[in-house]
Design goal:
The protein has 11 helices and 11 strands. It has 280 residues and is of the alpha/beta class.
Length: 280
């Protein structure tokens, strides 16, 4: 079986390729990216650029299964366009089974909400792919590490509301994706990769403080305050919209979910947030 990973040079893509090379005995792994020269290891390298849809059909040719990893383009509507173009190219190329990465709590939304592109991709996949699987992801634990580093300087971790999130390690998402790609019985399934526990804002702040030995509180702010602070820090409006959308999803409970899908698909328990924060 020939298995492709589209978006293979990103953090998640590299993780999935690595997991496949460790697990996929007897299968051929194809790493598809706009920078194939950055792919290391024995995977086959192919050029494919979401901004150049004509390159994708050739990149996806001959694949039995394909993982489409959504892009991080901040421009409103771009991610949705990329998702649709990649799915269409995979269908035209005759890919038998398409796996699509999405976000936990995905529902019908309008741009610039981050979930709008996931919703558009999911709906298009279901309508057009011969066989499909959706892997929804909770919020990356590694992204909280970055937020924590910035928050420690101010002594406060902020949110739009007290909320609970089951942060998931990126490597655990990669393991779950690899399990789908090499396994059977996943047609028409929608999975959600989460961490093992739901932590509130106050619990996250306390955990960061404990690990770093530095004081950190949790504070609730308004969306207007969040936008103003992000704008004052020099971030472009597209990034401000994404961060605000993520925090709104936190407040709405989109990531307040724990499943057993990482262990079921990836073959190992998901990492606790403590381990990721501590660099273990």
């Amino acid at each position: 079986m020939k298995i492709g990973v589209s978006g293979a040079s990103g953090h998640l893509g590299r993780g999935v390729v690595s997991e496949l090379l460790q697990r996929a005995e007897g299968h051929e792994v194809v790493a598809i990216t706009r920078t194939p020269e950055t792919v290391s290891g024995p995977a086959q390298r192919r050029f494919g650029d979401y901004n150049r849809p004509e390159s994708l059909a050739e990149a996806y040719a001959g694949l039995d299964r394909l993982l489409i990893i959504t892009t991080a383009d901040p421009e409103p509507g771009k991610r949705g366009q990329h998702n649709v173009a990649a799915i269409d190219a995979a269908v035209r190329a005759g890919v038998k089974h398409i796996v699509f990465t999405s976000g936990a709590g995905t529902r019908q939304e309008e741009e610039p909400a981050l979930g709008a592109s996931y919703w558009r991709g999911e709906q298009h996949l279901i309508a057009t792919a011969p066989v499909w699987t959706i892997l929804r992801m909770n919020y990356y634990a590694e992204a909280l590490v970055q937020q924590a580093q910035a928050s420690l300087e101010q002594g406060v971790l902020t949110g739009l509301a007290e909320n609970r999130v089951a942060f998931v390690a990126r490597g655990d998402v990669a393991a779950a994706a690899a399990g789908i790609l090499i396994g059977d019985g996943h047609a028409g399934a929608i999975y959600t990769a989460t961490g093992p526990e739901r932590l509130s804002g106050a619990q996250r702040a306390a955990l960061i403080a404990e690990i770093t030995g530095r004081p950190l509180a949790f504070g609730v702010i308004t969306e207007e305050q969040l936008r103003a602070g992000l704008t004052q820090s020099g971030l472009p409006v597209e990034v401000v919209n994404i961060v605000t959308s993520i925090q709104s999803s936190f407040a709405a409970g989109a990531f307040d979910i724990v499943t057993g899908d990482v262990e079921r698909l990836g073959g190992r328990p998901p990492k606790p947030l403590r381990d990721v924060l501590a660099g273990r």
